[in-house]
Here is the input.
Amino acid sequence: MIQVSKLVYRYTPATAIAFPDFTVQKGEHFLLLGDSGSGKTTLLHLAGGLLRQYEGSVVVDGTELSTLSETALDHFRGKKIGFVFQRNHLISALSVEQNLMLSPYLAELPLDHAHITEVLDALGLENKRNSRVTTLSQGQAQRVAIARAVLNKPSIIFADEPTSALDDKNCDRVVSLLLDAARLHGSTLIVATHDQRLKSKLQHQIRLTAAHEPA
Amino acid sequence: MSLFTLVWSYLKARPLNTAINIVLLSLGIAVITILLLFNTQLEQKITDNARGIDLVVGAKGSPLQLILCNIFHVDFPTGNIKLKEADKIARNRLVKRAIPLALGDSYQSYRIVGTSREYADLYKAELARGAWWQLPLEVTLGANVQRLTQLKLGDTFASSHGLTETGSDHADHRYVVKGVLKPTNTVLDNVILTAVESVWEVHEHAEENEHTHQATTDSTVMHSRLVPSVAANDSLKEITSLLLTYRSPMGAIQLPRFVNAQSSLQAASPAFETARLFSILGVGADIIMAFAYVLIVISGLSIFIALYNSLKERRYDMAIMRSMGATRTKLLVSVLLEGGVLTLLGSLVGVLMGHGVLILLSRLVEETQKAGISGMIFYSQEWVILGGSLLLGLLCALIPAIQAYRTDISKVLASQ
Here is the structure.
């Protein structure tokens, strides 16, 4: 599903970071571990197609990402990849339901109202359907953000520090939500984190050590 | 979900900001719309009212006053001229048509015009009901006059001197309503038509009356061309003015000079005088117009600043949407659309406001009604206003839109 080899990313012509080679099979879940500044987010952005300029090779779902144009990459992201960020940022101008509807709209997939209702029900947010997202509690907002990421049934779910700001109880809940969603759609889940609590939840791990300088 | 829903939600999320931008722009647009409607209609009215009248001949004085008084019936007469002299001009071979006007009195501020049937024909007037005036003191009312005074056929009224509403200075001579005209959308709607003789009769109570009625019976006397009931050489009768139509373009060259050469008369060209009037009024209109443009520029600036600022807040929104598959073009278009929707709304509100103000004005102010200015007329230039505002919106949104286009998603998302 993801194949990374000889990957190097240059922040500036002088500073670069090299990543270890790894391969993730379909349906496997990986933990991307490392301290702050070790390049977890950069690797996630590279594999998720948010960063285009790299050396080496990143093949996702059989496509070398650097061969895609900016627009093609946008479409690729929309259809194949779901992102969950630490800030679980929702669009505050929109209602809960509209935030979810944005997902298929931006990915140019058909809108399935029944599916959205189903997802809202599953998250216990059916009565918040038309509420502004600013009225949600943090836990509710996080659930909506996860629902938004998995709504298009992506092949890969990338989560960037989804739990670092949460207490143990909520941490467990988010991880099981992510794992359930991944299992339901047969998605691959990659979680970048320095949160030690997650080590026991996902067995595959990639460890990044600080700032690899390429040879 | 569509781009429009998204844009609309963003506008709704900042209601005050959106409202102030719409209000600012709409004020500027409303002023422009009012000026457009007012000016266009006024010019139209003036052209309509002056159509077929090449020259106005009256007593010496201000030529503009002569035009205002005798064509638009808004100013006071410059004085009287002798019928005998007017007749001489009417018989000139360069004159195709000469219409006498005898002014001076009014009823409830509606001017009573002593004239011939040709005056009504000039504006293609038709009777709505009743009959044309024939005998002295019979009148036919313009459509507005009837509507606003509620006079009925057979009613009688006394005129008052000048254009004031009060006072019946001529209570001993009562006019009788014989007919009402259909609306012509010209000045004719606002006047009361009667024979020249009526005006004389009302005013000559001090003088001996013998001339008026007896002259007609004498077949050997040459009749006046303007007022056939009196002799051509009558030296006492006076009228206010003469409306001339040339027989050929030669008239335009020779007649004004011929008239002005006579010590007691002056000639004024409606085309020239109205053009002069417009150039005087134009300065005021230009200042108001400039003010409107300043308002529009400020509102454009305000929209630009609002978009620019809100985009700074929305950088993360943009990045998230990109991560969800939105293309750069989509974000660019959404910001442009936001500017366009704002200005289009503002200009729509402005155009409606402009029409609303004129509708209100024509309901409340009698003068606008008399002038026949209506708020219900739409001009094609208003499309230009709408199109222009849309363009303004796109222009204001351009820089923020390019910023949205250039958003570095990875950098924004990583800057937690």
The mean pLDDT of chain A is 88.
